[in-house]
Specification:
Structural class: mainly alpha
Helix content: 40-55%
Shape: globular
Bound molecules: tryptophan
Length: 333
């Protein structure tokens, strides 16, 4: 990996791997492996910030790691957060260099805690949810990452990470941590097919997300029942549902079909049944190799878990080196 710049990103083991997550992150992560030294974490410590069930947390963590591999991530680039506990030690040190005020300004915390308390008046809002951006900063700088491929929703967390790294460097009087930069790529907006005004997400419920690893019949059924419009919207306007179907088609790489169908739409002769059928075909074809790969991985789960543990141990060595230096620099005995 000599000479390649460091990229790091992480995914929470909450929920399934759906098309929003695939097009929004994983597809890009796979591509970045060519050009960069990449590290990708399945961050189960972050998965504890909202109420969780231990058995589910364990299962989801392995599930997500397996699915990342099935989508094309090199196992050597994958680690499981809790197998690299140095992240939490660094987070403690960094939390002492992060102000309470900074954390209260995090919009994701404000949104999430509001969402939680609205859904349940006895809601439990953990300190972990509040300090989570500090752990995220540790996740990034522990590997001296240069680039962090994330969505725009993480912009503020990245900015905070840069501030924390700057403060650390100032305290220890050394340019120790490089300042990481976000890596934004053109990411299609993937909306729920059941409600195309909302972002596809696991938390909205089953019908709102299309699982990459679902049975092809189910994928087809979900796409065929996608919300469109009753034909009362026409070019140059487009309803959110139809727009979403077009973005899915484009994102899955079917550019020619996309162009043809768009042409039909513009001339007012596109039937939505046909559009849906083409989208379903495209998605099923694109995801088929992933399902096949998952079957292979699942056939010897123990061996795959062992591989993931080994890659985590290798990655841990790098985190340990950083922590040794950080402790030294910070005056910790
Ligand atoms: N906060 C990110 C999310 O919710 C997940 C995450 C945790 C992350 N640690 C990270 C992303 C480090 C990039 C880098 O999606």
């Amino acid at each position: 990996m000599e000479g390649k710049e460091q990229v790091l990103s992480c995914i929470q083991p909450t929920g399934n791997v759906h098309l929003g997550r695939y097009f929004g992150a994983i597809q890009n992560w796979v591509a970045l492996q060519e050009k960069y030294d990449c590290i990708y974490g399945v961050v189960n410590y972050h998965g504890m910030t909202t109420p969780f069930d231990p058995q589910k947390l364990r299962t989801l963590t392995w599930d997500v790691a397996f699915r990342l591999m099935a989508c094309g991530l090199d196992v050597n680039n994958i680690f499981i957060h809790s197998l690299v506990p140095e992240h939490t030690e660094l987070a403690w040190i960094l939390s002492c260099m992060t102000s309470y005020g900074e954390l209260t300004r995090m919009t994701q915390f404000k949104d999430k805690s509001l969402q939680i308390s609205e859904s349940n008046k006895d809601a439990f809002i953990s300190t972990g949810l509040f300090t989570y951006p500090v752990l995220q900063a540790a996740d990034i700088i522990i590997y001296h990452a240069r680039y962090v491929p994330v969505g725009k929703d993480q912009e503020q967390h990245l900015e905070l990470t840069r501030n924390i790294a700057t403060r650390f460097n100032h305290v220890v009087k050394k340019e120790y941590f490089p300042l990481p930069e976000p890596l934004y790529t053109e990411i299609p907006k993937v909306m729920s097919t059941a409600d195309p005004t909302r972002k596809m997400s696991a938390s909205l419920g089953e019908k709102h997300n299309i699982d990459v690893f679902a049975d092809p019949n189910r994928i087809r059924k979900q796409i065929m029942s996608a919300v469109t419009d009753s034909g009362d919207v026409s070019y140059p306007d487009m309803s959110p549902g139809v727009e979403n179907l077009f973005s899915l088609l484009k994102a899955s790489g079917y550019t020619e079909t996309y162009a043809n169908l768009m042409h039909l739409y513009q001339s007012g002769t596109l039937g939505y049944g046909k559009l849906k059928e083409e989208v379903a075909n495209a998605i099923i074809e694109m995801t088929e190799p992933f399902r096949q790969k998952l079957l292979i991985l699942n056939a010897d789960k123990r061996a795959v878990k062992e591989q993931i543990k080994q890659s985590s141990a290798k990655i841990r060595e790098r985190a340990q080196k950083t922590l040794k230096e950080v402790r030294e620099l910070s005056g910790l005995i």
